[in-house]
Amino acid sequence: MKRFGVILLLATGAFGLLGPWLVGIDPARQTLSRFLEAPSLAHPLGLDHLGRSMLARLAYGAQLSLSMAVVSVLSAAVPGTVLGLLAAWRGGWLDRGLSALADAVLALPGLLLVLLLAAFAPGQFWPLYVGISLALWVEYFRVTRSAAALLLAGPQVEASRLLGFGPLYILRRHLAPALLPRLATLMRFGFGGAVLAMAALGFIGVGLQPPTPELGVMMIELLPYYSEAPWLVGAPVALLFFTMLGLMLSGGRHE
Length: 255
Known about the structure:
9 helices; mainly alpha
């Protein structure tokens, strides 16, 4: 099952990365006379309510959602991990201050934080990016801090220090092997949460706005036509489903 999940992730990633280039159609180009045209060889997913290529819009939407999710997760993972290591290593006032800051951010629901930032610049990219990153970094900080504190107090690290090994050796030899699997799991779920958050905000109309080809925006745009052209609504839903399924299965054990 893990192999199948990895294949799904690679397929969705390749579609988002190469899809806009392979399709070669402007996702904003309208042909109003071809309203809700059924799938054909020229347009495998048909045309939407404004005569735009659904395949082109889905490819650009996948690229937008996946790339922003990757950037948001990396922007949260790097500072969260570094601050967690610093808090565990130095302790004292630095640990207390960073822990208090993390608790304060954790008290505010992540989606509410994104909504508050989106209210200042509706329809813009940066509130979604900043809000998702601010909501996610706490998880990396707390996991890294708690795991690193236990490892640094263990006999293996004490022995390395007595033998004269420096921080880089301890980080590479003792901390990294134990932390990387946990961080990889957090990043996988954080990536899925970021994609879902973007789609949910677009669906309720407080995220990116039409005509931006984003998964949530496409769902709400096409929802009134679900009875006439169900394949149009099903396309972004299926892409979102396969992305989440790939993320879940890729973390399983090898059979």
